[in-house]
């Protein structure tokens, strides 16, 4: 987590839900207080998907047709400041984004990740992009055809790390060569994963969370998660069976968080199935809670104001971004 709250309750993230025919409706759900609130006063959000937040800024990407360029920006809801970014081609193909430092500081880089990877320094006029074609060439050169997709990215203690399915960790630099392998086979892969994410948690720990295929189409039966602690010096990967009095918050898009369990279920993972191609659950309005101890899942409805049978987008964001809501 990039920002630490004054107390545990202020660290609990908010679930931002975007919906409506033209992606014009937005609400936030507070899992600690179990209440939702509609956002009406931020027109900059209309037509945008939210790829999480970083250092108090929302990361916004315009939803456009596949072959078009979409507007991108950083938006600070507290100050109403906007930082323009270069237009991004195929913006719907990206589901993660990180900043290497606060965007008002010099030499801050922004990195988008999805089917391709694009990055630039704040203030640049265009992105550097690792295309699918380049990825396929690297897979051929490395003898890992189909296995060099960058699944997860994180900025941790001044270094940008990535995870390549199924077992390779890399560092990401912003000069060529910008993906450098660290090591492979840190652990024996025992799962057929739906997706993996890397998250920095408080007290300087790095976590990897993997969502596991349920093997039963269009069903929650068999849904599972695996949580790992990543040590970077030397590189080590340790599976955690219990995270104690903490709660993890994850979604397909944007950032994730691991916080003290205040008003939320401890030793659990809160997740959404929005836009999960493996379950065809992009109409799922519920928030799901996975218990790491007994491996059970229960579901709650964050708000009845989200229309049924309509596509939605969800992303976890920092609590303090809408501190007055």
How would you describe the overall organization of this protein?
This protein has a 5-stranded mixed β-sheet with strand order 21-20-22-23-24. The chain has a 4-stranded antiparallel β-sheet with strand order 3-2-1-25, with no helix packed on it. A 4-stranded antiparallel β-sheet has the order 4-5-6-7, with no helix packed on it. It has helices at residues 8-11, 132-142, and strands spanning 14-19, 25-30, 35-39, 48-54, 57-62, 69-76, 81-89, 94-99, 109-114, 117-121, 128-130, 150-156, 159-164, 168-172, 179-184, 193-201, 205-212, 224-232, 235-240, 246-250, 257-260, 268-271, 287-291, 297-300, 313-317. Helix content is 5%, strand content 46%. The protein has 2 helices and 25 strands. The radius of gyration is 19 Å and the shape is globular.
Cα-based radius of gyration, to the nearest Å: 19 Å
- The share of residues in helices is under 10%
Q: Which structural class fits the helix and strand makeup?
A: mainly beta
Element string (H = helix, E = strand):
HEEEEEEEEEEEHEEEEEEEEEEEEEE
For the largest beta-sheet, the strand count, sense and barrel status come to: 5 strands, mixed
Q: What is the CA-CA span between the terminal residues?
A: 21 Å
Quaternary state of the chains? single chain
Which percent range describes the beta-strand content?
over 45%
State mean pLDDT (0 to 100 scale).
82
Globally, the shape reads: globular
Number of strands: 25
Number of helices: 2
Low-confidence stretches: 1-9, 276-281
| Strand line-up across the major sheet | 21-20-22-23-24
